[in-house]
Amino acid sequence: MQIGPIIEAAGQYVKTQYQQHPHPNLVYHNLLHTQQVVQAAEQIAAHYRLQEQDQLVVLVAAWFHDMGYLQGPPQQHEENGAAMARSFLHSQQAPDAVQQQVVSCIMATKMPQAPQNLLEEIVCDADLFHLGSKHYKERSKLMRQEAETVSGNEISSVAWTEKNLVFLEGHQYFTDYCRVLLKQQKDENIAWLKRKLEKKKGDAPSLPQVVNASPAAVEKADKQKETKEAKEVKEEKKEKKVKRPERGIETMFRMTSTNHIRLSSMADSKAHIMISTNAIIISILLSVLLRKLEDNPNLIIPSFILLATSVVTIIYSVLATRPNVSRGEFTRDDIERKKTNLLFFGNFHGMGLDEYRWGMQQMMEDADFLYGSMIQDIYYLGVVLGHKYRLLRIAYNIFMFGLIISVLAFIIAVIFFPVKE
Question: What parts of the sequence cross the membrane (predicted)?
């Protein structure tokens, strides 16, 4: 079974279905939403390094999870989507076990979500990935618009905000990856809903009653509503401008760590060059030149200077690359007080797997602890780099000046102190 072609065929099949069965009312559960869920599923699956077959299950389920909206009532879209996915996989000659896994993943997204394994958890989290993203506000508006269009009833802003707030506060991601990655933005979305709800409830008494009112009163109320909506849009744009760029922060951490590791690798390479070069010089001195010192006593001092230069250079180069391993143990008190960094192997290599797993879970549930550990990890990488490059600079200076002095010494010895026959 070829994994890649099946996933590609699934995506093309779903896109074709949306083109052939357009639903203008589906402003939220449309192809864009499906593509966003597939992207989220790919991101989560990549983190867990799924096997090819498991990756196939997750991505096909992500493509088909909302296909049921195109056929049949919305209340049964999971069942219809699962049936369409099974039919597609059967046409692709996928094994029955794979078909059943895809069906189970799609059915796990039915509210309330109830995944039974990692693959189902990934699909469920991908389906609601936007709850912890900066796109939540616009997706929520589209969801409200679709709900009003399908039901034919207008939903009040207060009722919609209250419903969303209850849902977000009661929702929990299933995978550790999403719990850590999306926690901060999800908390910000909840805080935004609370502020919005308080403001709307505070403004509610000031709205004019337009039931059985004159056309002029209705027109006035509509204008006030439009003004208020425009003001809300303006405030939302302002919030977007001042919001912290979480993705930018994560990119910063990743790039900084990568650059530090690259610089460390460069430092090790420079040290190896110094060690190899001076080892060759020493071997030549010991095997060739020292044998002729009895016949050329004037070369004793220059040879000694060159030998000392090479030895000291090697010493400093070795010091620059010599590893420093700590005891590698931590206590639960260290974790609770956030006094250790579990991202560095030197702090946990002496611990058991259960203790390390517990410590990592505690860190992943605390955003401040997690980001603090990342900052600490980058800081100590920089400290180690500074130490390495300082020793390397000394080694290169010794080699450069020692080589110059040695060459001058050899020239002086040969010209001004020749051997008398």
Answer: 271-290, 299-319, 369-386, 398-419
